[in-house]
Design a protein that fits this description.
By secondary structure, the protein is mainly β. Helix content is 12%, strand content 33%. It contains 5 helices and 27 strands. The two termini are 26 Å apart. The relative contact order is 0.06.
Length: 426
């Protein structure tokens, strides 16, 4: 099983076994060290000089980074065989330890459903199965479940399988999802007709795993990676055309920046985000005009970080411009620049405003103990007209899901309740 293979082929298994195999009364040498008949594999040393910043160092094992080299594969297989043989006397204990570990995991579980475009979406797991099942229900939670993807079925032909981002078209008929079968976070985009259950012929390799739909239900934007696995280009794909015909719409030439693509909460605009540690930059395009040209919101500047979302007829910009701990601003739809913005929430003076992730609506939130604000687009939140389910991160306890009551933009800003046993949804 996947979890078992991860545990007992990693350092975690070595730590667990080393700590668990101590005899109750006397100490004696481990059986692993009594296998003098086994010789550990030895990797060849091939001279390789690496020079950077005027300094040269020797790395005789540099050749091992060639993942597809038959000699590298053979060496790794020899290491795995050696590990299996050296630990073979612990097979029974491994089985016992594995059963104890999975016995502490809730195997039948479900995420908090969230409402989007007429459907409640959720992910669930079934006992005895290793992969998630992506489902939805139309209109109400009591409706019949529609299984969009049963990853357990998709994974049957692979030793490794992972689904990346899932995205449903605006007309609710098509599903885009990323598929990784190599365990390198390099996904191929695939598409499924949710009405017929058939998979489309379109397959797009070497992506980040997410696809963003335009409002024509036929066009998606996605990002691809370079050799260092940095997301650096955004492409546009039209269903029914080969991936080789996809159009490059943006290239992030600065190697210190990554790039991603998304959609505003209003579903009106496609967003391209360029980001690094000290700076961000956003571009936008009308989602009804997939062949249009992206416009820049605020050109990048060192030490200027901002994020954007759109709601109603305005842009909401969270920025650290003249605000060390960020502030929230509102700008006209046709002029989304910081100098045209009106301040909605002042900067916090005692903490950073990244403390909460809340649904972007006309409601605003702050923490109970300090003036920490956040109004950012966050998938996976259940949204309705009466409440918002938000997850609160913390350094000291597991993330908590909290039910919040919205307020109008003209109302006073209430404190956000700290999660308690009664507000945490498990």
């Amino acid at each position: 099983m996947l979890l078992r293979s991860i545990l007992f082929s990693s350092g975690l298994a070595t730590i667990l076994l080393a700590g668990a195999c101590q005899p109750e009364t006397t100490h004696k040498e481990s059986m692993m060290y009594q296998r003098n008949d086994l010789e550990a594999p030895k990797a060849n040393q091939i001279p390789k000089a690496l020079t950077i910043h005027g300094d040269t160092r020797q790395d005789p094992y540099y050749w091992l980074n060639q993942r597809e080299d038959p000699e590298v594969v053979a060496y790794l297989e020899a290491e795995n065989a050696y590990q299996e043989e050296m630990m073979s006397h612990l097979k029974g204990f491994q089985d016992k330890l594995y059963e104890e570990i999975i016995g502490r995991i809730r195997q039948t579980d479900m995420s908090v459903p969230y409402l989007d475009n007429g459907y409640f979406y959720f992910t669930r797991y079934e006992e005895g199965l290793e992969y998630p099942i992506y489902s939805r229900k139309k209109g109400i939670l009591e409706a019949e479940e529609e299984i969009m993807l049963d990853v357990n079925e998709l994974a049957k032909s692979y030793s490794f399988y992972q689904v990346g981002g899932t995205s449903v078209s605006p007309d609710n008929k098509l599903l885009a999802f990323g598929e990784d079968t190599l365990s390198r976070r390099i996904y191929s985009l695939r598409f499924k007709n949710l009405e017929t259950g058939e998979f489309l012929e379109d397959i797009i390799p070497n992506t980040n795993g997410g696809a963003i739909w335009t409002n024509d239900n036929q066009t998606v934007f996605y990002s691809v990676k370079d050799a260092s696995l940095r997301s650096y280009k955004i492409f546009k794909h039209k269903l029914g055309t080969p991936a080789s015909a996809d159009v490059e719409v943006y290239h992030e030439a600065d190697e210190t920046f990554g790039v991603g693509v998304g959609k505003t909460k209003s579903k009106k605009y496609i967003i391209i985000a360029s980001y690094q540690t000290l700076s961000t930059e956003f571009r936008y395009l009308d989602a009804n005009d997939p062949d249009g040209t992206f416009k820049i919101i605020q050109p990048r500047e060192r030490d200027h970080e901002y994020s954007v979302d759109h709601y109603g007829d305005s842009w909401y910009i969270r920025t650290n411009w003249n605000a060390k701990n960020f502030r929230l601003m509102k700008t006209p739809e046709q002029r989304p620049r910081r100098r045209t913005g009106r301040r909605l929430l002042p900067t916090a003076t005692t903490c950073c405003s990244k403390a909460w992730n809340c649904s972007m609506t006309t409601s605003y939130w702050r923490s109970a103990r300090t003036a920490c604000y956040a109004c950012v687009s966050s998938p996976g939140l259940a949204r309705s007209t009466t409440s918002i389910l938000a997850r609160r991160p913390t350094w000291f306890t597991p993330p908590a899901t909290t039910n919040l009551t919205p307020i109008s933009s003209g109302s006073a800003i209430p404190p956000l309740p700290r999660p308690t046993r009664s507000t945490i949804i498990t």
